[in-house]
Structures
1.
Amino acid sequence: MQNEKYILKMKEIVGNETGTINHSIYMAIINNENKIKDLTLLEFSKLCNTSKPSIIKFLNKSGLSGFAELKYLIKNHSITKQVKNEELVISKEFDSLNSFQKKYLEISINYIKLLEQNLISNMTKINELVSKIKESKTIYIFAQNLAYYASRNFLQKMRMSKKEIILENDLNLIEGYSSQLEQGCLVIIISLSGMNPIMLSTSEKIKNKDVYLFGILGIEGAISQNVDNYFLVPQIEDELWDSYSMRQSYIIKFFDVLYFQIIEGKL
């Protein structure tokens, strides 16, 4: 794995959640960089009031083999300070509420414009996806955090249309479904950053199976290389803050348009 990416992967796994086990582990790593390299796993678990298995599970999700690798990376790549400095949610350029609101509305409007432009420029991809949705007996959607919640309305609408569709965010269940995919089914992988380690691992396992794999991704990268086709989510929200709420809304709108195109042609 690329050492400079593991903190970013942790941030994506945690998302905007607070008070969760993963959030406690993540904050303990960020706030105790100088201590961790000298701690045992048991000592670190006491520091973040979390069990050792929960810590290992979180580290594995982040692409690390375990606590020893985390200690090695912190000792040899002191990057958590840089990431901690980037934890400010709102960009420093906004010195007043009015300037923030102006930028917020500007980016919100631009997301709608970009969705229209991207739907037009990616019409061939969209038509192919619609065809696969209609043809597939079962549709699988694998996503986490905000991407998962952004997909729930689409799930409900498709089920109302009597289509077999499975939406999953749990690592163990994703692995289970991935190992028993039926021939010719459709799998949609969503990562708002385009770097989610679980989605990357899942795409690696699925790419050589006889299924159609479609990605809804934040960037072109390792995941996009594993899928049959993909649709990109603009990253202009980064100009405002370190959050994914507008990108979540973009996914919801994309699925709304996609659903209308599906029912227009009838399932």
Note: The beta strands are 138-142, 164-168, 186-191, 212-217, 229-232.
2.
Amino acid sequence: MALTEQQIALGVARFLEDYPAARREVDELDETLAQSIGMELEELRQLHALELMGKAARAQGVDSTAFMVEFALDTPEERAQFLAELEEAHRRAIGL
């Protein structure tokens, strides 16, 4: 069970809308920096936004996947179903 690339992109966009300081930090990344580390600017910004999401989740004491799901999926029902399916997949993986 995994989010699609489109869902992740939507989750990042919504996170950045709700966290203006993170938006500013991501927007400050520039082409010069991206080129210096051999990345495309949008890829660098996406990765940095994901890092910031992880930090925000930890600061709130929330699992980073659950935090992403809050932004990536539209309804509480979708989020609950996704997390339940993910938990079941984890249980099966460890033999429970």
Note: The chain has six helices and no strands.
3.
Amino acid sequence: MSDNIDNAISAAIRAMEDVITPTIDPKHPLAAEQAELVTNTLKLLEAQLPYRMAKATRELTETIRMSTSLLPLTKWSPAIFERLHRAIETGQAILRSGTIDQSQVNEVARSISGCVCALVRAARIAQVTEQSAIERIVLRSSETLIMDELAWFGPQGWTTSQSLPEIEQRFATN
């Protein structure tokens, strides 16, 4: 059976704009506001849908890159080193596998990000000498991920930055 979710989202948008929203009683502004929220959410999903896998893959790739840079700085905590090392290996195996399940990619990226958060917190609490190097790597490595998030949610209008690329440009795959 073919996946027609993009058609279903387009149909839902048309139904909201052409049928439901025009029939809302003007005396109920909250209902009109909610209808607009639903329509805009559907439009966001429609814009994001073709790029979901590209975004997930890039997020995993970038978190692996960051974590690989951090790994040598975790020798002071064998538990964090092992957890981060295992997470990196799992992520690399998924990327090499060829058959990528998006939910699995998202889960592993979140797992690696959780390891990085735990590392930053543990380094701060333990006040290890590597703390500032760890923080610098995380900040420097986060730029791509932050720009991805800004582009991902750009269609909602949260930013007016002219330098922000469109979602299509940011996640187009060649």
Note: The chain is about 75% helix and 0% strand.
4.
Amino acid sequence: MAKNLLRRIIRWAAEMPHPAEQYYSPKLSLSEERALLRRNYLLLMTGHAALGLIGPEIRGIAIETRPDDIILHIAATADTETLREDINVITDDLDAYLVSGPEHLTPISTQIHVGQADTSWSGRAHDLLYLAKTEPPNHNS
């Protein structure tokens, strides 16, 4: 009886579609699906690495995933020593998170943009992780 139940469960599981299929277009090629999964993985790991380190001077964080490296684009109000220390902690933590996975040899670099996280920031062309709220215009003046 237990063997029959186990066979039925295995047959049922083999017929189940992969959970990702309900979220991704079935027209994606295998390489496109892998790139999307990699992007999501790196966004998640970078978010974990940045927890508690995004201060008021950081206006935006974006991730550029290239085949052979990862670039963190940071938009900031000023390029300060404190900002650079926080970014170093983020990249060190990200590197530590990636050490046990498929990205363990992938180099991580950063680009700092001093200014708003608007269209002048190169990070806007990549995958956004964080954008600071902008102050709404004061119409009472």
Note: Residues 29-131 form a domain with the GMP Synthetase; Chain A, domain 3 fold (CATH 3.30.300).
